Each structure stands twice: as C-alpha cells, then as structure tokens.
C-alpha cells in the first residue's frame, strides 16, 4: 500500500499566507513600533469652510512631544478603530454596521429563493454570452467611481455578483475584479468625484475642471486595459476551471454561494419577480441617496434594514423566518465588520503617535529642487506611500494637498497635475492596500484570500503604474508647450 506521505510533507513545507486579521494586527503592531522611532511633529491647522475640515498650513511643521504607542494601545486599536472611547465619536462603527445591515438584507432576499431563481433564469437567457456582463458591469462601476468615488457603496455588490459569476462558470475572484477594479479605475481616473478630484482641487486652490482632459484620457486607457485583463482571465477560467487562482476553493465557494435550492430551483415565479424588483429598487434608492440626497452610512443602513423587512413580508417568510434570515445574513458578514475596525485601527495608531504629519513633512522636503518630470513622478510615488497609511481619498486630499501643491509652484509644475498625481496614486493603492476596509471587506465577502488577490492583480498594477507615470510626464511636457 502506497504511503500517504504527501500530506505530512505538505503540512510541513507549504506556507499558509496569513489571514486578513493577522495581516492587519501585524500592521497595527508595526505602526505602533514606528511611533517609537519616527519623530513626532505637527502642522498648524486652520478651519476651511469650503472643505468643512481643518487643513494643515504649509511651512508650519514643528516638532512636538512624542506619544509612542505601547502594548495597551495596540490592544485597544481595533476598538478605537470602531469608535473613540474618550469622545464617543464614530470611526468605522458606521461602516461596520452598514455591512451587517447589508448581510441581513441579503439573507432575507436569499431566503425568499428569488436570487437563486433569478440567477438560473439569467444564465438561461444569456446562453453563452456571459462574458459581456464583465465590460458592462465594470463600466457601470467605473462611472460610479469617476463621478462619486464609489467605495463603501460597492460592498453590497460583492454579495450580489459573486454567485452570479460562479453560476456563469467563472470564479469568485472574477466577481471581486469586476467590482474592485471597475470602481477603482473610476476613482483613479476621477473626473467630477467630490471625494477625490473636487476636494483635492479645492485644497490645492485650483478649479477641479483644470486637467480634466488628461484625466479623461487616463480613465479611458486604464479602463480598457483592466477590462481586457479581467475578460481574458475569466475566459481562461471558464474554459478550464483549474486555471482559477482560487481553484482549490471552487467546491467550497460553490457550496457557499450557490445554495442547494439552485440545483432544484423552482420556476421563476411572479413573487420572485416582485422581490427582485424591490431588490433592485433598493440599490437605485441607495445610489440616489448618496449622489443627490446627501446620504451616508446611517441612511444607507436604515435603507437596507427597512428593505430587508419589507422584502421579508412580501416574500411571506413570516416573523420567525424573517428574523432568522436577517440575523443569519448579518452573521455571515460579521467577520467583514471586524476587518473594517482592524483596518481603521492602523490610522488611529498613527494619529495618536503624532507621526502622520512627520511623514508628510519628509515628503515635502524630498521633492524640492527636482526637474519637472522627475518632480511630478516623485510626487506620484509620495502619494502612493501616503495612501498606504491614509486610505481615505478625501482624508489624504485634505492632509496632503495644502502642503504639497504649493511646492509645485517652485518646480514649475501646475497644481492640477499634482491633483492628478494624487488621485491616480490613491486610486491605485486602494486596489490592494490592506488598510482599506473596502479591499479587505470585499475580499472577505467573496471569500478570496488576500495573497491570491495580489497574485492576480500585480500585472495590472505594473501596467497602471507605467500608464500613470507616462500620462503625468506627458502632462508636464504639454504644459511646457502651452506656456
């Protein structure tokens, strides 16, 4: 009898990449260690009525008393990531609650059988044309990204699209790529995005329409490149499932996302149609509320709570069935909610240790006196580095633009190019950074390990980086001919 030596060998030699929880806890500890090494410092700040926030003042950086973060701070960081225990102010608790409401909502809709029946009907209608879902959906997400910085709002779509992509013969990673790359490229090539381009331009003191043509060109090129890459990967997986980067999870993901009811799905009934109509209407109301109604996490959470209850009643689940479905759905996304708090805890540690402004000051000093083309590309990489520590595009815009944009005046680089360097860097980093609740949350929802996502996306990052640096360099040269 042949020995089963392979399993113990694999157990001793195969490296298991850490989970998202371990990665984030390690980053919290690393940043806390930095607060003992990096000198503490602060910029003076002034209230901006235009931006509604306090902004740093260039040239006012000064050393301040160190506040190194110790063991207790590391332990409390995940808690502080949700809310500030001292002031009671929310940090990421609103986003985490939003995720739980999404989970409950999806749980109720799934319990009605409408999603399974709808997926089966959609796959029958497409009949081999499933590939066109990818560019269409990525285009819609890119529009959302470039116009209103679609980020946390994408989280419900991971729950929705993952079973659709798996049923179409693709994998869960394809669903992540459609949502994250689609919206991410839109943010990278932001045009009228109030949370990126507009707020950064205001902080830099220029109209947000300056540099619009370059950003449109950047959006078009990067969207075409990423869409082609995702379609090529999806086609390979459909032709040979073993080509999937997460092939070892195929059976597990199919069992999780495609419930047993799909194999014996009933007809697509009138009740299913009503439920899916309400389902789609919920997302339409959410998009309206965020883009035009001034909504944010509280309103969106309330919407999904109300919609979940309404669909449960329409779907005739009964009081007990509705409650169990909602609580069960929220339970499925509890891990995602915990990841969101961990990710925010990193930023909390940096701010408490007074090293965020120091890192920004070092960036300001490093670009003085550079050649224009070198300057704009170094500026891009500085924003890349800063984006890892400050994943919020609006937060990074308010932090960095008042300091770094004026430096461009001395280098002869127009401020709109610095805004473009900022938004493209932030958009790129927020495709992979483990400090982003959107990245880690989306991967957790779709059950895609972080290391597999990195393996999938590194060629995209390389192409996007070359494209961005080329566009910024061309922008500087065109600026020179214009003047």
Description:
By secondary structure, this protein is mostly helical. Helix content is 71%, strand content 2%. It has helices at residues 6-13, 20-34, 71-82, 93-111, 114-126, 133-148, 155-167, 172-188, 194-204, 212-239, 250-257, 260-263, 270-291, 297-314, 318-332, 334-352, 356-366, 372-389, 393-411, 415-429, 437-446, 450-482, and strands spanning 41-42, 45-48, 53-56, 62-63. It has a two-stranded antiparallel sheet with strand order 1-4. A two-stranded antiparallel ribbon has the order 2-3. A hairpin with a 4-residue loop joins β2 (45-48) and β3. The longest helix has 33 residues, at 450-482. The termini are far apart. Residues 1-13 and 260-265 have low confidence and may be disordered.
| Number of helices in the DSSP assignment | 22
Distance between the termini: 81 Å
Mean pLDDT: 84
Low-confidence stretches: 1-13, 260-265
Overall shape: globular
Decide which structural class fits the backbone.
Answer: mainly alpha
Strand order of the main beta sheet, please? 1-4
Helix content: over 70%
Q: What is the tally of beta strands?
A: 4
Largest sheet: 2 strands, antiparallel
Query: What is the H-and-E element order?
Result: HHEEEEHHHHHHHHHHHHHHHHHHHH
Strand residue percentage: under 5%
Write down the Rg.
23 Å
């Amino acid at each position: 009898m042949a020995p089963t030596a392979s399993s113990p060998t694999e157990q001793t030699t195969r490296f298991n990449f850490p989970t998202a929880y371990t990665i984030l806890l390690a980053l919290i500890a690393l940043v806390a260690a930095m607060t003992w090494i990096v000198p503490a410092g602060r910029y003076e700040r002034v209230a901006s009525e235009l931006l509604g926030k306090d902004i740093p003042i260039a040239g006012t950086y000064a050393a301040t008393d160190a506040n190194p973060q110790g063991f207790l701070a590391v332990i409390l960081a995940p808690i502080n990531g949700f809310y500030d225990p001292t002031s009671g102010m929310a940090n990421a608790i609103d986003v985490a609650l939003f995720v739980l409401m999404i989970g409950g909502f999806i749980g109720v809709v799934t319990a009605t059988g409408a999603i399974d029946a709808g997926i089966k009907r959609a796959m029958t209608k497409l009949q081999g044309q499933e590939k066109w879902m990818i560019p269409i959906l990525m285009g819609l997400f890119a529009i959302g990204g470039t116009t209103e910085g679609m980020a946390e709002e994408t989280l419900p779509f991971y729950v929705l699209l993952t079973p659709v992509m798996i049923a179409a013969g693709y994998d869960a990673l394809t669903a992540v790529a459609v949502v994250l790359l689609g919206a991410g490229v839109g943010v990278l090539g932001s045009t009228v995005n109030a949370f990126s381009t507009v707020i950064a331009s205001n902080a830099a003191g220029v109209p947000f329409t300056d540099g619009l043509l370059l950003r449109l060109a950047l959006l078009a090129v990067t969207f075409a490149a990423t869409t082609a890459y995702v379609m090529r990967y999806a086609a390979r997986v459909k032709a040979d499932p073993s080509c999937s980067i997460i092939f070892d999870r195929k059976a597990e993901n199919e069992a999780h996302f495609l419930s047993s009811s799909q194999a014996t799905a009933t007809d697509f009934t009138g009740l299913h149609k009503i439920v899916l109509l309400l389902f789609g209407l919920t997302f339409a109301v959410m998009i309206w509320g965020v883009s035009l109604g001034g909504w944010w996490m509280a309103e969106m959470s309330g919407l999904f709570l109300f919609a979940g209850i309404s669909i449960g009643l329409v779907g005739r689940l009964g009081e007990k069935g509705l409650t169990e479905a909602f609580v069960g759905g929220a339970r499925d996304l509890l891990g995602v909610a915990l990841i969101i708090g961990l990710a925010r805890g990193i930023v909390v540690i940096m701010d408490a240790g007074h090293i965020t402004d120091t890192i920004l000051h070092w960036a300001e000093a490093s670009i003085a006196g550079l050649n224009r083309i070198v300057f704009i590309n170094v500026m891009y990489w500085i924003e890349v580095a800063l984006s890892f520590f400050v994943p919020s595009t609006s937060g990074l815009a308010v932090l960095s633009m008042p300091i770094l944009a004026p430096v461009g005046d001395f280098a002869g680089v127009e401020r709109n190019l610095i805004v473009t360097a900022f938004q493209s860097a932030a958009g790129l980093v927020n495709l992979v950074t483990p400090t982003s609740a959107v990245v880690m949350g989306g991967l957790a929802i779709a059950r895609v390990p972080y290391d597999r996502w990195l393996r999938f996306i590194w060629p995209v990052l390389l192409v996007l980086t070359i494209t961005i640096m080329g566009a910024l360099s061309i922008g500087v040269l065109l600026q020179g001919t214009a003047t």
